Amino acid sequence: MNEMLSFDAGLLQGIAIQMLNTAILFIVMSKLLFKPVSNFMENRKAEIVKDIKTARDKERNAEELEKKYNEKLKNIDKEKETILTEARKTALDMKDKIIGEAKVEASKIIDRANAEVEKYKSNAQDTIKKEMIGVASEISKKVIDIELDEDKHIEVIDTAIEEFGDMEWIG
């Protein structure tokens, strides 16, 4: 049992070399691995903090845009009503204008028709007068051809005057 616990010089030397190797390995690893990994981790941490800050800024901007868009949506309803009101007013104005123009045109048509009626009426009166003159002329011829005594002649003229006097002239 004593042998198991005995430390010989070779064992102690092996332990010392092992510890020295471990220390060298630790120093080399810290220079080659721990520092780059630490630097990488620090850089990564800084990037994450920067990304979080950027994300928060973007979130704030998004919230502001959302508020603006909500306000614009409210204003769109108002603008829509304004545009519709203006369109209705314009349509009513156009309707009134078209109706006014139609009335003016109808009035012109009526005036032309009345003028044409007056023209036809005047022509008809002229024709009737000419026919009456012709009839009177024929009657005169017949009266002249027939020999009448003076009393008969006055009676025929009075009768003709009465008949023509009862006629109403169109006018």
Largest sheet: none
Q: Proportion of β residues?
A: under 5%
Q: How many β-strand runs?
A: 0
Number of helices: 2
Structure described in brief:
By secondary structure, the protein is mostly helical. Helix content is 90%, strand content 0%.
What do these coordinates show?
The structure is a single chain. The chain has 171 residues and is mainly alpha-helical. It has one domain (21-166). The chain is built from two helices and no strands. The protein starts with 8 loop residues before the first helix and ends in a 5-residue tail after the last helix. The mean pLDDT is 83.
Secondary structure layout:
Layout: H1 9-145, H2 150-166
What are the defining features of this structure?
single chain; 171 residues; mainly alpha; 2 helices
